[in-house]
Queue: 4 jobs
Job 1
Amino acid sequence: MTRILREHEMARRDMTQEDAKLPRLGEIGLQNFAPYLMNRIMGRYNASLRAELARMGLTTPKMRALAVLSVLDGLTVSELAVYSVVEQSTLSRALDALVAEGLVRRADDPADSRVSRIHVTDAGRAAFEALWPTMARSYARMFHGIPEEERRAFVATLQKILRNVRKHDF
């Protein structure tokens, strides 16, 4: 028996009666499974930005860092990783490149010199502002044909879901 089959069998035995009542993915269907839909949407959104990012010499992690810092400047690397939804190791490499390109700068935290805070530079802000129209058009396309009231309700629901799954206090 393969390792995967053994693990599956052990997990099946450990399943509680409540777990056994949960619907299977095939019963829900991919088109009704919110995590799948959210991943597809974000994949398409990121793809719609890729050409402009490449033209500007940016990557998705760099763009996300600049976007977050344009709104919440001076975050720690850990905070920025959470807000930009980028693994910390990937973000660290992106930040090294952004620093080298003069788009962000690192500064010691005044309260704890072991902690760095990341600040967007004027050049970084200008780069983000140049990218923003492309991002805004892609965002508007996502909501094409969806009434404003539905969009607000959808975003409010996403905010509730984020609160349900959030692990951080910021």
Note: Residues 32-142 form a domain with the Arc Repressor Mutant, subunit A fold (CATH 1.10.10.10).
Job 2
Amino acid sequence: MAHERYDCSPGCPVEATLEMIGGKWKGVVLFHLMEGVHRFSELRRKLPSVTQRMLTKQLRELEDAGLVSRTVYPQVPPRVEYSLTDLGQTLRPVIAALKSWGDRHGRLGVSPKTSAA
């Protein structure tokens, strides 16, 4: 296979990138944040299958990776907004490419062998 010619031993750039954006929900969260600033409740509505605990965990990991910014407004009730950082913005072409590939090949229930054109 062609990808075998790339050196992707532990610590390689692909592994590092997937560590930052991998997981069931991180890519989808990043995709929605490409639209602009979202409150936690807005993200929950866009991801009805994710639990509050899991969404919180994924957002914290994205924040720790420097991809997402969390802004807390001191009001009652507190308002928390999430947005892409400058580093997170650099993932736009990556997330767009994943969406494009998924539009062509990643439909649920469709085998990649049957959907390839």
Note: The chain has one domain: 11-98.
Job 3
Amino acid sequence: MVSPATIKTVQDIMRKDTGVDGDAQRISQLVWLVFLKIFDDKEREYELMDQKYKSPLPEELRWRNWALDEEGITGEELLDFVNNKLFKMLKELNVNPKESPREYLIQSVFEDTYNYMKSGTLLRQVINKINQEFDFNKAEDRHIFNDLYESILKDLQSAGNAGEYYTPRPVTQFMVEMVNPKLGEKILDPACGTGGFLTCAIEHLKKQEKSIKDRTKWQDNIFGVEKKPLPHLLAITNMILHGIEIPNNIRRDNLLSSPLRNYTQKDRVDVIVTNPPFGGEEEVGIPNNFPSSFRTRETADLFLVLIVQLLKNQGRCALILPDGSLSGDGVKTRIKEKILNECNLHTIIRLPRGVFSPYTDIETNLIFLTKGEATKSIWFFEHPLPEERKGKVYTKTKPIRYSEFELEKRWWKNRKENEFAWKVSIKEIADNGFNLDLRNPNALQSKKQYSTHEIIEEVTEDLKESTRLLAEIEKTLLK
């Protein structure tokens, strides 16, 4: 049975291999192997349910025929098979997605996936460990793997260049719950990363099922787009684990690379939940796909314009934005005006620093809007730090918890101003130059006085956290 030590054991084996360099490559290597194991386990399930089921893979490429036997091919023979037959044939699959959707899925997954390991003997050890520990036809293993899957994403976040892949699950769960997708609605994450928002949406929809027929109402209505190959592969795997048999609606692409005018009514969706990458810039030429008044290379701003285009009338959206997107002027102001004129931006939840630690300490906001009606006023809610945090920020070891959002959930349907919540009219916002980076006017002025012992305790905790982070950096540099 899968245990929390499984991933670590596999990665420790990979660390002995000279071809695998760093956490990101180890995770990529692990994920394509796990994907093929999951696919084989799911095929066994399909074969039991349908005697006419035919695998889209040639027999020699199926996991059961080259990887399952612990005494099977190893060393140079295994390495030659993986590099010169398995990957070569999977990458060269040329199929019509409508005629052979499963085969097309596999081809798209392996299009930009690579085998980094150079030792066939170590590769066999990894494969055997996966066979011993993982059985995705067991509900218990599937449930445990979901937890391990999130730990993989956190490792990926710490690998140094992939922080945008992982949005804390308590945040995605709260956002999905508040936007409340319904069975039959089209749901999209246009920058889906590893699929965290979409898996939360699936779990939310499953709670609405009353019959087997209801499952078909969401199977084909979950859409995601991710431009990077590794998070795309993780997203595909995530969707299969959460019950989407053929997740070909999770595409590897960049929606910003097409002219905005090309997205018409047929492309529009009912619900968008997303954390568009912020702090990055798009390549030269991408801004030309947008009207001149909204041209910028900043990714988050372009996604804002795209989101308005992709929503149906009365479509709902929940997204994450940094403070800079709320306060900026120039193009940012024109984008905010467009959103406020075309959508009812009804709620902004202001999060404290550290929610995305250790990737960034930038303060972020949860934005909720509905398209088709201009904004008349905006409710702001300042999410408080838990009392036990004593005014400190969140950290990697002490992250935000889902239970903390109970405060917002109780307030959501019966909104009143209080020490955390306040309401601002669109006139006030316009008079203030459309600056949405507004501070809480109702915040309690009195500050708690800490004892000397408490101050020393906080400083000690800060030093421990700093020492741990420095050790991680040193370990990375020495690799």
Note: The longest strand covers residues 311-322.
Job 4
Amino acid sequence: MSKVKSGEMPHYELLYLISNKFSEHEIKPIIEKVNALILNNQGKITLADNLGKKRLSYPIKSFRYGYYILAEFDMVGKNVINVDRALRMMNEILRHQIIIKTIKTAEQIVQDKKIAEKIAARNIKEEKRVKEKIKETDKEKVDLKDLDEKLDKILETNDLL
């Protein structure tokens, strides 16, 4: 989660993959280049994290491994398009994704908890109602022994013909 959040600009999260043809030392200038790109487009970086080299789920441009880099930043929406376009043009980056992040205020968190409690209470009531309904249907069912006795009585009578 980001450490600082300014209220006037939207907050974005950028996750990008750098190909593994670069060493640990060679990716530092690439990360600095991406950070400079964000800063040059009037962005403010709030979190930058190198998640390390990991195996990819599937090969991307014939690479099996890549460096995962996470960056969170505040930026005016129209400048995000420029950052996205520039990231697509960089050969060092295999894939990237920019998403808008909403950070909830304390009031929103309290409101979400109240809603969750109401939903939980409603689910408990629904479960009780279903259990009562099952009990009622079980009471209405005839026991197998009682059914056998009734059938025996019917068959013992001579009034069938």
Note: The chain is about 50% helix and 30% strand.
